[in-house]
Amino acid sequence: MIWGKAFEKEYRKNPVATQHEFQAFLNTWNDDITDKELEEIVGSHQSNACSWRFPKINFPDSYISFLQYSNGGEFENGDRYFQFFNIFEIREFNIAYHIPKYMEYAVSFAMDENGNHYLFDMRHNPINGEYPILAASSGNLGYDDCKLIAHSFREVCSGKISIEDILFEK
């Protein structure tokens, strides 16, 4: 996919990370929760995060390709708005929203303007190198209430219906 033509609107295209930063991200994004992260979670009286885990799986090549085009950023197609996390935010946002607790094997990579998450569903092996994409509300995280919105990263990026409309059947 030619990312420069993938979206109708580019509100904010971010500079790409250096090769060193990008490789460090790929090697560490799914490390176990660190002692410092655990302290912060427990210190905020949120939860005992000792059992939280990130999937020990690689991101799809299409997503890696996008990050090499724009390290996060804000884009839109039709009514579908994306606030993609950059490589320095992905882990932080997933921990802050307790994704590993409520949706084990899911990884949030973006949000819309209403606080809904776009997530890779990594519970099963990828199909043609891609994971399904789920939409979930920040206030109601869990597999029971999320919706499948695409079968691949490219497909979700080309969609035009807002995930708010899909989640709440507007």
From TrEMBL:
It comes from the Bacteria. Residues 56-155 form the Knr4/Smi1-like domain. InterPro entries: Knr4/Smi1-like_dom (IPR018958), Knr4/Smi1-like_sf (IPR037883). This is Knr4/Smi1-like domain-containing protein. It comes from Pseudobacteroides cellulosolvens ATCC 35603 = DSM 2933.
